[in-house]
Queue: 3 jobs
Job 1
Amino acid sequence: MLAAARKDLLLARLRADGRIIAKELAAELGLSEDSIRRDLRELDAAGLAVRVYGGALPASPAVADYTARQTVATDSKQRVGRLAASLVEPGSTVLIDGGTTALEMVRAIDRTTDCTIITHSPTIAAALLDHAADVLILGGRLFKHSAVASGAAAVEATRAISADRFFLGVTGIHDTEGLTTGDADEAAMKRALAGRAAETFVLGSSEKIGAVSRYLVMPLDEVTAVLIDAADADSPTARALTAQGLDLRLSA
């Protein structure tokens, strides 16, 4: 089997099964395990898979740049955003992460809601200009890929704040690999924000469910709930998360 054909097969298996175990697939196809592992390394380098011990998992399409992500799973992001917006209570202080799902959340928040919103995303802050909410922007180095502040200065800024709820954006939600994102500094910033809130809710639009990115943000048992699209409630990942006892909340 030619290398290109093997890679197409590996990608098809990832889509169908949600994971590849290199040893088992090599035996099934009558190929060497080294060939499968080499193909997986190349798929990982191309951003099409994420290598893990013994095989690979699907790479998240949510690691694309900010502009490209605005066209991915837009309906799902809107539904999850509305669900998240319903959890913003008058008089509360909330932290909102950056990203396109978070932007849909902000768009769905009642503009008359009197609350305090803290964010490290200039895009999120700008979307709140016409809202009654007080808005606090955390500064730092601008990570242009996600349009958020990150780095040491941004992490340091989190020490001066506290919030009732944090709405966390990630690029991967997986039942064994946890909550992941594509940049180490961004992952550190997300952890710092989560540490300043009493509750953390994950914004789980469709393209993130069952996908994995390179850097762990936090394990699943450290969040309050994952907000997902009702259309994904029957997915293998959603069923596995429910079996683990995770609180999954579904959009209308």
Note: DSSP finds ten helices and 15 strands in the chain.
Job 2
Amino acid sequence: MAHDSRDKELLLSILDLQSPAYTTMPSLESALAAYTRAVAEQIGVPLHAVTHEVTDTATAYLGLTARTADRPQRDLMLIGDERLGWYVAIEPRGNDQPPVICHLRGQIAPPPTAVAQFVTDVLDGHRSGQLSPVPPRLDRATLAAHMSGTPA
């Protein structure tokens, strides 16, 4: 049960529901779907290699067709996470944790062209780094608006 309006909005956000005040804003599910497709299109990843889901965390997965020169035998993936932002990692084998190659610092939902440039830079060997925190977490309505290109 929500105790105040902020609590109510947080609860609705977690459930990916919207209060009447947010009815003109896209749902997180639809915004994430469109945003993930746009990122995939910019990178050239076929849609059959793309998934997304909204559960306790909104995430996107893109299976990359290119590999890095230093690990030509390993498949790569691009992951978008509402808490961690975007990062390129090596596809895990079994239950291994995927080794992160590089994390895109900055915005949680940067423009698809910025994500595509990040992937190009990583594949060209111009970026390396470990997973690190990104700016404070956005509420889901604001996150959906950012993904739709209409920041609240």
Note: The radius of gyration is 16 Å.
Job 3
Amino acid sequence: MHFINPKTDFGFKKIFASPQHKEVLISFLNAMLYNAEPTITDLEIIDPYAAPAITGLKDTYLDVKAKITGDKTVIIEMQVINVEAFTKRVIFNAAKTYATQLKPREGYSKLNPLIALTITDFVLFENTEKFLTHFVFKEVEENIEYYREIELFFLELPKFNKRLEEVEGLIQSWAYFCV
């Protein structure tokens, strides 16, 4: 029996960006972003290609882009190779996707929150053993959280090293699937 490899561009998009199978993406996102709670009840998969609105601005190609419950946008990228300045690319894609929500002369109140989920087949954060990390803007000394307009999640596949019989719960099941 042959399976689709979720680490390939084709496989990842076939599994997670197929409108006829959006329940798969809903389950995956609820696991990764909301601790397996059924927070997302519906979503709309959006064209992930983001042409620059300004001449000279860099194009953006995302693996998956979706509008989820609560008018949030989620962008997902699967990255197998640790390319130069990858962490900067993650921030660029998130910031660009967030900023390009507005049309000329629209007020900032029209901006909706953005979540960027990045799946890596390499270790990105050497200083933690966690395979799933979540970042938000916080004040450095007092750890005061700023608005959660942009959140970054990272699923580092090499850090997930459980065998099938050790997997527990939806989060680990999806991590195992992606490995």
Note: The radius of gyration is 17 Å.
